[in-house]
UniProtKB/TrEMBL annotation:
It comes from Desulfocicer vacuolatum DSM 3385. InterPro entries: DctM, TRAP_DctM. It comes from the Bacteria. Keywords: Cell inner membrane, Cell membrane, Membrane, Transmembrane, Transmembrane helix. Its main location: membrane. This is TRAP transporter, DctM subunit.
Amino acid sequence: MDPQTVGLIGIVVLFCLLLLGMPIGFSLAFVGFWGISFLTDISVALPAMVRSFFGTFTTYSFTVIPLFVIMGELATVSGLSRGIYDVADKWLRRLPGGLAIATIGACSGFAAICGSSVATAATLGRVALPEMKKYNYDIHLATGSVAAGGTLGFLIPPSIGFVVYGILTEQSIGKLLISGVVPGFLLALTYVAIIVVWVGVSPAAAPKNSQGVLFRDKMASLLKVWELIVVFFLVMGGIYLGMFTPTEAGALGAFFLFVVTLLRRKLTWKSLVTAMTTTTKVSVMIFMILAGAYVFTYFMALTMIPMDLSVWLSNISLSRYLILTIILLIYLLLGCFLDATAMMVLTLPVIFPTIVALGFNPIWFGVISVLMMEAGLITPPLGLNIFVIAGVADVPMEVVFKGTVPFLLAIAVVVTLVTVFPPIALFLSGIMG
């Protein structure tokens, strides 16, 4: 068989293994290993496997992943997540759908110190959902706003999504993180607009809260989360000004939050073990996926499928934006069945050479692709945030899915804006230190 046929068979086998429930990292490594063995020899596949796994687990720059994860865990332990919601509630509760808008604001704030979408949704869901239930908010609006707000953890830096994209495509992680700032907060504002329209059409979905908050109380609430503001500017400001690498910034942010947790007297032996255990599980899962991806990418390179596809797409007489639209629709379809990291690992080895050949900016496409991955987090039947919120709120998943549908429109709007106006994503990264 020619290499392209072997590659196509490998892709089919990979999806079959995923449907059978094999973990994505093991599936990638298994197919990649036997594909390399078939095209060359097992004596070539074995060293490739060893290099991929050893290199992934020992590369210094990859330590940014556990550092960003532990930042989120320490923020939860220290009580910052509750403080963020209290601030958003005091400042935004008088708006139409105030508690839902406060949830989006709190998710944006928590995302600024936590790179995980699922962690953001789970943490703020435990805080926000009881409050909205207390004030008789429509269950679809309540669960939908938390699930959608959680996706901001994948876009607003520090974002693990950008870290994985940068690793797989060999792009600057610092520039990718900075490029997510404006689109991230633009998406948050679009979510807010969706809530305002929702409540305007159906006022009963969010009963008005007549209880006002004095201005001095609003200002006093900011003192509860001053550490959040400091750590965000410490991490992202340091990266932006060129003072720290992303790894150094992550280490500094994690150490700062560790000290904050100590000073707040919230750090117990049990909470520390829980935080470290969760960080280890999440980090190892991502590392296994990346290691398997390297093996599979080597196999794909031997089949020449990515190169042949990029040449073919570059030569066909279609607008490059039409090709981009097709790619984004593929992402939306895959998001119905795969989690965000798996989508990135599976598609980038094939799609990224095409994006470069078509003349698109790799940093800009990183923002676009992460936005589409966010959509996958709240689309049926495998949106991870849906499972999390359904468990926290103790409601059927269909209820949460129905609540997230309007927020998918917000993601589509932001993707369109970033596509039509690339400086939205590229301005800050273009002038950073």
